[in-house]
Sequence to fold (301 residues):
Amino acid sequence: MTNVNNLKSLENLLELFLGKVVELKEQRLSVLEGINSLDDISRLASRGIDITDEMGEWFANHNRWLTDRSFKQADLEKIDSMLSQIKNEIKIDQSSPPARVKIDREISRWSETVKETSSKIVLKRSPESTKEAIKMYENDTISLFLNKLERSIDLFKDYSANKQHILSVLDDLLKSAIIQKNKDALILSAFIIYYLKQNGYKTEPFVKKLKEAETILTGEVLDAN
Amino acid sequence: MLTSGEKSYCAALMALKRKDFKTATEHFKKAAPYFEHDREFNLFFETTRLLVDVKQELGRYEQDDKIEIEEIFTDG
Fold:
């Protein structure tokens, strides 16, 4: 039952983390979704399919982008390149239907605006690091966990350099946790052990070492108190 | 045009938004060769993969907990 409870709390933690990722990336996601759908339209156009309706719908849904000044340069370049590609494909002449002519004009208008926006230089200044901001950061468990994960990735890269197998990496990490009393190495070891267990490896000897390291580190914390 | 890796990364994030973690993992897998040195990508991918594994493991426990109930009618 304890195992189920542990898994459930891990499930909640991971879902919470990914939920926050989506929340943080909300604006970026909407930009990516728009660029992705424009890319789909440009692919249809390159296959000779009539994209008048799709393009009209795309303009209607993303009209506010024309006045949005927070776009990344790379995104603007992508949008401009896709619009140019679509414009080349739809080929307007005297016999073209009015709806297609309108789309062509709208593409030109967008391209001009996108070019204007991308030629502007935006200078941004990072916020001041006040004591209050630092305190808020300390209470932000999501950021703290994210930092921990990033540090773990760096640690793993350091320990895995020139190694042939993950078991050698784990062994070294556990040694570091025991000898150097490295808490990051302990957490990363636990993560690797769980990963190995999921992949059918025998993990008992490593679990034993992990418990030994944990006891040493807990003892250190108690001594310090 | 976007590369297939970029399209897959985008689809993975959209799936995360819908809380469809299994589909997100599939899209992350397709995008992985294009973003192998992107730390943020790897973090999102590994976290989603771990979550799917945890859910699968929990599902196994829940199946074990199921009690089979059989109704028996005697004399019609």
Q: What stands out?
A: DSSP finds ten helices and no strands in chain A. Chain A touches chain B at residues 3-4, 7-8, 10-11, 14-15, 17-18, 21-22, 25, 29, 32-33, 35-36, 39, 42-43, 78, 82, 85, 146, 149-150, 153, 198 (CB under 8 Å). The radius of gyration of chain A is 27 Å. Residues 26-118 of chain A form one domain.
